[in-house]
Specification:
Elements: H1 2-21, E1 23-26, E2 29-33, E3 49-53, E4 56-59, H2 65-72, H3 91-104, E5 111-114, E6 119-123, H4 134-142, E7 212-218, E8 227-228, E9 235-236, E10 239-242, E11 259-261, E12 270-271, E13 275-277, E14 285-290, E15 302-307, H5 313-325, E16 328-331, H6 342-354, H7 367-370, E17 373-381, H8 389-397, E18 404-411, H9 419-426, E19 431-432, E20 436-439, H10 446-456
Parallel strand pairs: 3-8, 7-12, 9-14, 15-16, 15-17, 17-18, 18-19, 18-20
Antiparallel strand pairs: 1-4, 2-3, 4-13, 5-6, 6-14, 7-10, 10-11
Length: about 450
């Protein structure tokens, strides 16, 4: 019996060490957060600034479906497998998971959620599990580097699970990809078991790709002054997630790239990675509140279908929606239309996206007429993993505050890409409902897909 007891103790000790080794000590330090003006495909919200973070522990891998199920008893994921990362979870669900796991392991829960989820208080001194701040995430992902990626070489499909056909800088070199440092590779179109590739230099697996990872922060402009352990704005309408997912292009895997989504929304390419405090953690509390968004006072409860289409695929989806609903419908036209030639329009589209151009719209909507609509059903083709720039012009030309946007897109395999993030950033005071992504024209299943989507958004 004594030998059995000793063997039992040894097994428990090994399991405890294995669990402890799943978290990596990130020693903290000062780094330049954001990206320099010279970084290709940077966004304007990546302003370079100095940040200091305290030591913390970060999980070596993303939370798996088995780990999630053992705590919650559920598995919301679109792709299923015990060792696949959990996804299709909201930010609020991620926070509740952190608290539940903390309680299960005898740690002090970090978060207090109140007011129906609109107020979340973070006890910075608690020892429980939590989401990383945006600064902690980027510091850990960079692993001491200042380049777009932690590796000197641009990552490819053999290094990361992403839309491997489109490595970094493919956009401007699509017809001459031989000049790229990293060549196009396989697109798997799904999540992979965590730890399928080599970790970054600090031992973190899948810090790029597979699934994006929720962070604590509300999305907002960076403070340009030096920051120590920043936690983001106190209020906002979108929460940040980082790292890119299985369907993202290489440009959206960059260490500085920022994605954002409503805290009550979920996506098939967004999950989480846990952290907990190290020594010398900040004390005090952080209280965040979801910003109130007022519905349009003069809205009459009407819905408008408005879309941009190039090949006709998006137009077909829009007409099916109009057929089933009878809603008003408008197709956006440009003062200077894009070329009818496929190869030419690919280059024009990436050019405009690269410089964040705002093509002038020929289509004009009367402002009084616009005020009648509470819901905007917004359609577009997924161009280069984002919205076409005419949609950006629209979003900046009309008041979307308080309105509900129901997005739909046609695509060739990447579903929404990062187009929903683009909409979320350009219309920060709009509510974004569940989206519909349609592969090319949608085929025979389109009417039923549209019907189900409209039901989901009622």
């Amino acid at each position: 019996m004594k030998k059995l007891f000793l063997l039992f103790c040894m097994i428990i000790g090994v399991l405890t060490m294995a669990q402890a080794s799943d978290f990596i000590l990130i020693k903290g330090g000062t780094f330049q957060m954001g990206s320099p003006d010279s970084e290709d495909w940077r966004s304007n919200d990546e302003v370079l600034h100095s940040v200091t973070v305290s030591p913390f522990y970060m999980a070596s891998h993303e939370v798996t479906q088995q780990e999630w199920r053992e705590v919650t008893g559920k598995n919301p994921s679109s792709f299923t497998g015990d060792n696949l990362p959990v996804e299709s979870i909201t930010w609020l669900e991620a926070v509740e998971f952190c608290n539940a796991l903390s309680r299960k392991e005898g740690k002090t829960p970090v978060y207090k959620v109140s007011d129906g989820g609109r107020t979340v208080t973070w006890d910075r001194g608690a020892d429980g599990y939590r989401l990383p701040t945006e600064a902690e995430w980027e510091f850990a992902a960079r692993a001491g580097t200042t380049t777009p990626f932690y590796s000197k070489r641009v990552p490819g499909a053999d290094d990361v699970n992403f839309y491997g056909h489109y490595p970094y800088q493919i956009e401007q070199n699509y017809f001459n990809d031989s000049v790229l440092e990293t060549q196009p590779g396989v697109y798997r179109g799904k999540t992979l078991p965590v730890g399928s590739f080599k970790p970054n230099p600090w031992g973190l697996y899948d810090i790029y790709g597979n699934v994006g990872e929720w962070c604590f922060d509300y999305y907002g402009d960076y403070a340009i002054s030096n920051q120590t352990d920043p936690a983001g704005p106190d209020s906002g309408t979108r929460r940040v997630y980082r790292g890119g997912g299985w369907n993202d292009f290489g440009k959206n895997l960059r260490s500085a790239y920022r994605a954002a989504m409503q805290q009550s929304s979920s996506a098939y390419n967004v999950g989480l990675r846990l952290v907990y405090n190290g020594d010398k953690a900040p004390s005090g509390t952080v209280v965040t509140k979801e910003a109130a968004v007022t519905s349009p006072g003069s809205g009459k409860g009407k819905a408008l279908i408005i879309y941009y289409s190039w090949s006709g695929n998006t137009r077909g989806v829009a007409r099916e929606i109009q057929k089933q609903t009878g809603y008003d419908i408008i197709e956006l036209e440009l003062v200077k239309p894009y070329s009818n030639n496929y190869s030419t329009v690919l280059n024009e589209a990436q050019r405009d996206q690269h410089k964040q151009a705002r093509p002038e719209l020929k289509t004009k909507i009367d402002k009084k007429k616009w005020e009648e609509y509470d819901t905007i059903i917004l359609g577009y083709p997924n161009w280069w993993a984002s919205i076409p720039m005419p949609i950006a012009t629209l979003l900046e030309s009309y008041d979307f505050a308080g309105r509900t946007i129901l997005p739909f897109c046609s695509h060739g395999g990447g579903r929404f890409g990062q187009s929903l993030t683009a909409i979320a950033k350009l219309a920060p005071k709009a509510k974004i409902g569940k989206g519909l992504s349609v592969h090319y024209s949608g085929g025979p299943a389109l009417p039923k897909d549209v019907e189900n989507w409209l039901k989901d958004n009622r």
